[in-house]
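Lecture notes, structural biology module. Today: joint structure prediction for complexes of two components.
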Amino acid sequence: MNPRTLLFLLPVLAASQGLDPKALRLFQPPADSWPTYNGDYSGRRYSTLAQINAANISSLTPVWTYRIAGIGPQRGVGNPVIKSTPLLVNGVLYFTIPDHVFAVDARQGRLLWQYDWEDHGGHLVGQRGVGMYGNWLYFLGPDGWFISLDAHTGKERWRKKVADEKLQYFTTMSTMVVKNHVLVGVGGDAMDVRGYLEARDPETGELQWRWWSEPEKPGDPGSDTWPNKAAMDHGGGMTWMPGTYDPDLNLLYWGTGNANPVYAGQSRKGANLWTASIVALNADTGKLAWWFQASPHDTHDWDNVETPVLFDASVDGRPRKLLAQAARCGYFFVLDRTNGKNLVSKGFAGVNWSKGVDAKGQPIPDPAKEPQVDGSLINIPAGGGTNWPPPSYSPDTGLFYVNAARGYSIAYLTDTDEQPEGYGGRGGGLITEAVLEALEVKTGNIAWSHTYPSGTFGTSFSGILTTAGKLLFTGDPSQNLIAFDPASGKILWHYRLAQNVSNGPSTWLLDGRQYLIVGAGDTLYAFAPRGAN
Amino acid sequence: MRMLCAISALALAALLPAQEPPAGGRGGRGGPALREFLGLGPPPDAKAAERGAKLYSPNCGFCHGENANGASGPDLVRSPVVLHDEKGELIVPVLRDGRPDKGMPAFAAMTSAQLSDIAQFLHLRVELTANRGTYKTLNVVTGDPKRGEQYFNGAGGCAACHSPTGDLAKIAARYPPDQLQNRFLWPGGGRGAPRKVTVELPSGEKVSGTLARIDDFSVDLTDGSGARRSFNRDDGVKVDVEDRLTAHRTLLDKYSDADIHDLTAYLVTLK
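The predicted structure, tokenised, for the full assembly:
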């Protein structure tokens, strides 16, 4: 096909077949789509749709369910769990579990096609979904394979190797499309490898740029936070969750994972940049614009990959472009997203691991609270103050919502070698309670919170969606899908599912009817108001 | 049974992958299950690895470190050759031929079986590093038992409910020190021990039993006859869940790490 023909065809593709690039926006996708993991680039997971609202919530009812069949227990993790947020493009839902992609008709929940990948390693801990560019989908197999599919048929176009699973890298991210870049991150902290984020060409899959989570060599910026090159080469900082993007600033915002070795920090003295950080990268070059480190010299497995949520708000009478993150280390951060300058650093969970914050607003780790051979008591559960499931920000209330974990753990050092490797320790769980918290973005104060009576979230933490219908949707640890009043925390509605909500709820309009979509274990549920249309 | 639950919950919290919060009470998984999850390939042959260790130490340890994590020579645990190898097919040729350009001698005099044993030793080292299900807690008995006893009878307030000659007699014979420490910090594991619940209905009727399940909308209990009963938490229904662990919970905000280690040192004397 010559370029001229391609140009002629492009608008047709965009309108009738593929994803219109204009649907990918900073705030608020078109009402009839959910074109990327977080719906829009901001990560707010706030929808302006209000057909389902606080006044008619009692009419919300399941209209179809799609249960994954014929796959059975997956290696090392058990029955399939939907952690992906389905894309909705042109009436078709695209969602994933490890090794599998599904295209389902959004009106009826009917399977259109299924793509099955046979992995040869990697961790099947989760799969967060696909990215889309025109008519092409981008999926990651757990064993470091970056795979492009035809969205119409599910047929594979090509595959590229992006990570070595034998070194204990794995790939679970929902790929993210920004302009003509497909962003691909990696996971894996069992064997002390070096984190990176890649941009790849949507047509060919070839590498465009790679950003490493550590400086390359002594003398490079950031290398003064490491003792030597070997420590940097094995320093961790995985990029396993999709980030966010501001098209006006052309900056990607990405969270990086914990440093390696995970619990044993004795061979990597220093702050260990840019692990456990939020980094702002130029989307076209991968060049670092600014950074903010949430857990300097992390020794508690506090991956900082929780969504860096973008929102605009007025502070002291001045409009500001802001970024907020409820971090796994227990702190809530608000930054100026143009330059990384800190406005708020406040614990939303226990933060006894830190001695306060420095001039930049970054926590100062307390060496006495690093993992010890005989145990060090931490007032956050072993998994941290929250985890990957998506939070939400509502511009209606000005509140940031997060499903948090409160409790205690005891951190043990099990590898006392001068050159420890792997985890080198562990966080032993004590009490864990699951709490939905609403945080004021200008102060970090808790406006309201709801402690779920049933205790811990276990392995399926639920994400959050807020809407202009004055509703907040999330799941509790007892298989309930719940609608809260986002202003007060009052429960307005609930529906008992067969399993816990295991992804972030999403919503869109189809044929004039608003749908709510949630994944719970192996089943996708579609809700809509009874009687609408 | 309670002990088993507590141990499995603690073990699980330690073993879960970094992407997940700890789970309560879903049953633990040991090293082999975690190995499968990690996709580490065929497990090392323990006997071959033991034979290999005896060969590794005098022949390789000087350059690569006794634990194979590197010295003047490279770290072999993180070595891509070792991590890509399954049963010696990549490691054995390197051992046999050496890497003369990098100063590594050839071990051509060793038999294939011996070289294969060394490969298995390296796989065991990878297993003990990458598979956190194999990690062992080291010595937690570092405190002062006398100060621990004082804390037990004084500031900790433990003696109000527990006695070293009563419920805690010979406690140290029942649990190894690290489990003992975790158990006094939080006896129930994740959600806590079985709890008593009383449901008061709008009529004034009260029903008590062992809490089976609770959320914001309903509560289930097992009553004295062993029957399971379920109540909706409608307006006017009061639910009171007894928390026998209040004292343990309160202490978690008060302990210094030294208090904890002193208490452990005292409790391990109760044999």
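Point to remember: Chain B has a mean pLDDT of 88.
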